[in-house]
Structure formats: structure tokens, C-alpha cells
Design brief:
Radius of gyration: 18 Å
Helix content: 25-40%
CATH topology: TIM Barrel
Shape: globular
Strand content: 15-25%
Strand order of the largest sheet: 3-4-7-8-9-10-12-13
Number of helices: 12
Order of helices and strands: HHHEEEHEEEHEHEHEHEEHEHEHH
CATH architecture: Alpha-Beta Barrel
Largest sheet: 8 strands, parallel, barrel
Number of strands: 13
CATH superfamily: Aldolase class I
């Protein structure tokens, strides 16, 4: 049980604060515990349940989704919670402030969050320095974005810059073409736009693998708002360009599941319970069209071990969550790990 018994009280206090401030306090608290060697008391040691995915040995299939630690400021703290892997970022080549505050909104009645952060980050060089300082030795992924002022036709350059800089310090990278909070970014999911990006990143992968003597796999993160034809087209491109994995899904722009809920009218990407079924639909369609050609990382609305199991049954090999951590606390990590034990 560990320190998890205190989370309901801690959550009540945190939910009285503005959401972004509460997140910062949580990270500082985890860092303090990690620095004192006490972070492991929260969840204890989660038994190994290794999975080989993308040629990487994951100690368990439970991951922290991108967005929780954009700059790698809390790697040791989050790592001590028992995740099998952490995905840092999204990160861009240059620092940018993101959208004006407030830009993060809780919807407790729907177990959801709306964010319009806009890839706020300190830039890839800061993330690299933080990765160098970590003591956590688990699997690390990095979510790659483009700067707001980079034209869409130059997006591949931004992904390539980030990929080259993080390459020696991480285990895999994710090309984020599906955040709804960078203007027109989701247009990159179209066939004509996505093909050249995948070709560029795979060429860089081959060059960097030769240079460093190791291969860092590349995943692509897609939206839950795609129709079946779009999912099929993306699946074809992923196979054609030999992409190593696909992450399904990002947040949704739909508000169908939260009509009338306070804060539902806020602009941004909706995460949590309302995106669960949409994410699963995309995972099932991907699994159908990929037919095992590459693995799927399932994300979206995981609030319980049963939710995570549903992602695996839909076709995912690994799972990730972030909003679930906000609502359920650190205890969700061992619960999901137990539910997915092979």
C-alpha cells in the first residue's frame, strides 16, 4: 500500500489548486522523494513482466504517456513509481512558451482533462541535459514536436533536429503529428504530408544507427478523430516506410462525450475517460490493417487495470497513461501492471 493511502487527501488538496500549478508541485514532491531515496515507498517494487517490443526489453508493459514530463525534470521521480517506461516531451528544437494561461482544465465529472498547452517546453537541448543527469535506468522514449513558427512543409526538419540530439540518450522516439494544440499540425497525418516525413526520419535513423552503433526505434503518434479510411492509409504508410511502432492515440477534439460538463467548452485536446472508446476503435482498426507488421502502443482513457486490458485485447502491445495518474494516483501503476501480467 505504501504512501498511496495518502493520495485521496493529497488529490483533494491538489484539485483546489490551478491544474498546471498542481502538476508542478507534484513533480517537485516526487523529485524530493526520489532525492531522499523514498520515492520507491509509494508503490514498492513492481515485479518484472518483460515484453520485447521494437527490439527493446521493457521490464513491464506500463508506460507514462508524453505530456507529464515535457522537459525531463522528474525522470527519477516518475521512474520510481514502477512504470516499465517513460515517454518524455513533447519537445521542440527551440524553447517556446506555449499558449497563454490558463490552458489546463480538469473535468472531474467526466474523469477528463482538457489541455491547450501548445508544446510548451524548454527546447531539446535542456531535455538532453536532464536525461544525462538521470539516475533512472529504465526505458526512455521522447516525444518529438515541431515549433509553432516552423512551416508545415519544414516540419520534418524539426523532427530530425530533435531526433539527432536525443538519439544517444533514449531508447525510442515518437513523431507527434497529432497534437490538436499546434495550428494545422494534424494535417501532417495526410498521406501526401506524412510520407516524406517518414522517409526523412527513417533515413536519419539509418545514418545515426551507423554512427552510434545502436538503433533507436521510431513510433508515430496519431489522433483518435481519424475515420477508418484515414487509419487504413496511415497503416499502409507505416508499413511501407518500415516504421517501428504506432502510438494510438493522442487527445480528441470531440466534445460529444462531455456535453454539459463544466469546462467542456474550453478549447484544446480532451483526454481521460471520454477518449477511451475512440482510442480503442483506432487501435482495433490499426491492428486489422497492420496484421502484426508493427506493434501498437495503446493510450487514451486508462483509469483501471480493466481499461488497460481492453487496450491489449484491442491489439496493443504496450499501454500508456497520464490523465489516469491525475485521477487515480500512483496506485494505478501497480494495478495496471497486475492486470497485464502475462
Amino acid at each position: 500500500m505504501g504512501l498511496n493511502v495518502f493520495y485521496p487527501a493529497a488529490r483533494a488538496a491538489l484539485f483546489n489548486l490551478e491544474a498546471e500549478r498542481a502538476h508542478g508541485l507534484t513533480m517537485r514532491g516526487l523529485n524530493t522523494l526520489a532525492g531522499l531515496g523514498l520515492a520507491g515507498l509509494i508503490n514498492g517494487r513492481i515485479p518484472d513482466d518483460p515484453r520485447m517490443v521494437m527490439g527493446i526489453r521493457f521490464p513491464n508493459p506500463v508506460g507514462m504517456a508524453a505530456g507529464a514530463d515535457k522537459n525531463g525534470e522528474c525522470i527519477d521521480g516518475f521512474g520510481a513509481l514502477g512504470f516499465g517506461f517513460l515517454e518524455l516531451g513533447g519537445v521542440c528544437p527551440r524553447a517556446q512558451p506555449g499558449n497563454p494561461k490558463p490552458r489546463l482544465f480538469r473535468l472531474p465529472a467526466a474523469q477528463a482533462i482538457i489541455n491547450r498547452l501548445g508544446f510548451n517546453n524548454f527546447g531539446v537541448d535542456v531535455l538532453v541535459e536532464n536525461m544525462k543527469r538521470r539516475t533512472y535506468r529504465g526505458v526512455i522514449g521522447v516525444n518529438l514536436g515541431k515549433n509553432l513558427d516552423t512551416p508545415l512543409e519544414k516540419a520534418a526538419d524539426d523532427y530530425a533536429i530533435c531526433y539527432e540530439k536525443i538519439y544517444p540518450h533514449c531508447d525510442f522516439a515518437t513523431v507527434n503529428i497529432s497534437s490538436p494544440n499546434t495550428k494545422n499540425l494534424r494535417q501532417l497525418q495526410g498521406e501526401d504530408e506524412l510520407g516524406p516525413i517518414l522517409e526523412r526520419i527513417k533515413g536519419d535513423q539509418a545514418r545515426l544507427a551507423h554512427k552510434h552503433g545502436r538503433m533507436v526505434p521510431v513510433a508515430v503518434k496519431i489522433a483518435p478523430d481519424l475515420d477508418d479510411e484515414q487509419v487504413e492509409a496511415i497503416a499502409r504508410l507505416l508499413v511501407k516506410h518500415r516504421i517501428d511502432a504506432v502510438t494510438a492515440t493522442n487527445t480528441t477534439i470531440s466534445r460529444e462525450a462531455v456535453q454539459g460538463v463544466p469546462n467542456a467548452e474550453e478549447a484544446g485536446g480532451l483526454s481521460g475517460t471520454p477518449v477511451f472508446e475512440a482510442s480503442n476503435r483506432v487501435i482495433r482498426k490499426l491492428a486489422q490493417h497492420l496484421d502484426g507488421a508493427l506493434p501498437i502502443i495503446g493510450v487514451g482513457g486508462i483509469m483501471s487495470g480493466a481499461d488497460a486490458r481492453a487496450k491489449i485485447e484491442a491489439g496493443a502491445s504496450l499501454v500508456q497513461f497520464y490523465t489516469g495518474l491525475v485521477y487515480r494516483g500512483p496506485a494505478l501503476v501497480p494495478e495496471v501492471a497486475r492486470a497485464l501480467r502475462a
